[in-house]
Amino acid sequence: MLQPHLSDDQSNSLAAEENKAKERQMGVYRRMTPAQRVETAIRLSVTAREIKAAALRSLHPDRDEKRILGVVRETFLYARS
Questions:
Q1: pLDDT tens, position by position, for the chain (81 residues)?
Q2: Cα 14-18-22 angle, rounded to 5 deg
Q3: Number of structural domains, the chain?
Q4: Is residue 3 part of a domain?
Q5: Is residue 28 in some structural domain?
Q6: Is residue 2 part of a domain?
């Protein structure tokens, strides 16, 4: 992730912290049961769709809900952003 105006030391420190966070999160996933991982994946997918729909509503307040949901569906179906 790009961070503007960070020194090399700050950038390296941030990258190290991000790596630690990723390792901790992977540990959490490993300790989950398969059912818990599926539930987590579903929740993440629903949340991503909700965020995308909210962004589209903000950018295009004149579009109707059916059109917004169609764009969300196409975005995730074809993995476009």
A1: 555 678 888 888 899 999 999 999 999 999 999 999 999 999 999 999 999 999 999 999 999 999 999 999 999 998 755
A2: 170
A3: 1
A4: no
A5: yes
A6: no
- pTM of the predicted model, to two decimals? 0.71
Cβ neighbours around 72 below 10 Å, total: 19
Token code pair at residue 37: 């991982």
The answer to whether 14 and 3 are in contact (CB under 8 A) is: yes
- The pair of structure tokens assigned to 31 is 């300790």
Can you spell out the DSSP letters for the chain?
---TT--HHHHHHHHHHHHHHHHHHHHHHHHS-HHHHHHHHHHHHHHHHHHHHHHHHHH-TTS-HHHHHHHHHHHHHTT--
Q: Do 72 and 56 meet the contact criterion of CB atoms below 8 Å apart?
A: yes
